[in-house]
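Hi, can you check this record?
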Amino acid sequence: MLLRARWVVPVAAEPIPDGALCVRDGRIQSVGRWRDLRHLPVTAREDLGEVIVCPGLVNAHCHLDYTGLAGHLPPQASFTAWIQSIKGAKGLQSPEDVREAWRVGAAMLLRNGVTTVGDIEAFPELQPSLVRETGLRVVSFLELIRIRADAPVEDAVDQGGKWLRDLGEAGLRAGLSPHAPYSTTPLLRRRCAELAVRCGAPVSMHLAESAEEFEMFMAGEGALLEWLARNGRAVDDCGGRSPVQVAADAGLLGPRFLAVHVNYLAPGDAERLAGAGASVAHCPRSHAYFRHQPFPWEELRAAGVNVCLATDSLATVRTTRRRALQLDLFAEARRFRTAHPGVALAELLGMVTRHPAAALGMTGEVGILAAGACADLIAVPSAAQSGSPLEGLFEAAGPPLGTMVGGRWVSRREGS
């Protein structure tokens, strides 16, 4: 198949005017100018018209099973109060509620241009059947939570090992997600790190998300620590260390470690993450929902950390009267650009394509348009008033005209 567009934005190279790409067996065979590729022998040709074609977006962090909670949880007075509220809301969901929320969220991501997602799975029994129902590429991270020191850890580790084996044998990508430092014991964190190394699996962890978490570990006090202590969590791992240091001490930091949020840093934390080759996923709309302090992007960037953008879940997006809540990575990018107006558009695009691809261990496979990469792409209307294809991508109104995964259109707007 040969596709032609007004602009092709490979990400790994400069935008190509009057561009084209050739797709064969679900992979990109070649990318270049239409005049150079139009004579290739192919079985199908399609002129997409005045559109911008770029790689499918890569969403490094999401909770698809929370999609049904959109608009149900107003912001709380504290992070601790919010944990209690979502815990109660999750307890009211039936397995079918969760299954339907996952399906709706996956379809929403595809419609809005995401072709690969790193999803946190709190209901492993629903996998891998749900993944196979959609064209979405999923890296499924099994969520592991243990707060009581007397709670068995080996059963969780065994469950994690089985998860990695089962999904691997099914041809799916899997990882581990020890939920957060405050919701895991030191032993569980160490065992997860060891298992991930043995299996070569990626690890995703909510890290340094809130001021209360930061206070819990740095000062050994605060509302979050007190609430967890009342619920049986030992707190002897708290005090004198940042959450990033806690993860490092457990052996979690490394090239396959994805730290989610990282809103609060102690001196040296950015360098510690960068030195380990770890990645950070920032969720701008979730960040605004909780009213966190400004995200330390400049500090992380200066240290050399691979920073990407993600949606988180719709449970932490503020409702608006203008439109229904959507899992929308372009909306996250626009919010980030508002908060950090100095970001270059090429870097912003990288933060929703090749940066998260690297964070998920998929460098060269997704997040770029290049020979050998998966034929995952989106077609976005070309804004007539914009001479720059990058401006056009972020100015476009509405979802992409079409989303392709593995050489197959999985979402297309009517008339496109």
Remarks:
- The chain has two domains: 2-55+368-412, 57-359.
- The mean pLDDT is 94.
- The chain is about 35% helix and 20% strand.
